[in-house]
Amino acid sequence: MFLSIPTDTFTVCRDAAGIAGNIFAFGLFVSPIPTFRRIIRNRSTEHFSGLPYIYALLNCLICTWYGTPLISYDNVPVMTVNSIGAVFQIAYIILFIVYADKEKKMKMLGLLLAVFGLLASIIAGSLQIVDREARWILVGLLSCASLISMFASPLFIIVPNGIGTILGIVQLVLYFYFKRKSVEDSREPLIVSHV
Q1: CA pair distance 48, 36, nearest whole angstrom
Q2: pLDDT beyond 50 at 1
Q3: In this structure, are residues 56 and 121 in contact, taking their beta carbons and an 8 Å threshold?
Q4: Sign of the C-alpha dihedral, residues 134, 140, 143, 149?
Q5: Which DSSP state fits 127?
Q6: In a 3-state reduction of DSSP, which class is residue 75?
Q7: I need a labelling partner for 192 at 20 to 30 A (CA). Which of 3, 97, 128, 179 fits?
Q8: What is the CA radius of gyration of the chain?
């Protein structure tokens, strides 16, 4: 069925989806601007986390690598939009580091170095794969994984809190159930005399 689509139609649809994706990606890249205006105005990162920008940078760098001619054919739009996104993310991370307290600065610098180290490992490792199709698939899968991690990063905070809430409710139910049982049991005398 996929092969029955005329090449011209497929190319037009692919290009249209690529343009729409680039527009949405650009909107995603500029969306933190109000947050960073607040950070600059208050000269503090306050309660904001820098992790989403680290995840986004990792995603942009891996997707940029995926879009290069060394990995995939005819994916220049993927490479360009993600390289622009990487520049935005680096700018956000630098601003975050400038206005963060010392502990957050060190954490963010460490994570930034880890991102560049991981990217270097991905580039070096993928260039060792001689089969171009296997290299394309591997870097594509890593790109998908980084994209999922970028969008799922807020869930890493929500999921443990959600699980904690459920376990807390279970604990309260058990507490009140056994408290009632112990009150009923306490009405019996502790020592029974057999005289």
Answers
A1: 10
A2: no
A3: no
A4: negative
A5: H
A6: coil
A7: 179
A8: 26
CA 144 and chain centroid, separation: 11
CB 63 within 8 A of CB 82: yes
8 A C-beta contact, residue 167 and residue 99: no
Q: What is the pLDDT of residues 66-98, one digit of tens each?
A: 999 999 988 888 899 999 999 999 999 999 999
* Cβ-contact 49, 123 below 8 angstroms: no
Q: Rounded to whole angstroms, how far apart are CA atoms 1 and 167?
A: 49
Is the whole-model pTM more than 0.90? no
CA 93, 97, 98: angle at the middle one, nearest 5? 120
Give, for 119, the enclosing helix (H) or strand (E): helix 102-127
Predicted pLDDT of residue 188: 60
CA distance linking residue 73 with residue 57, whole number of Å: 23
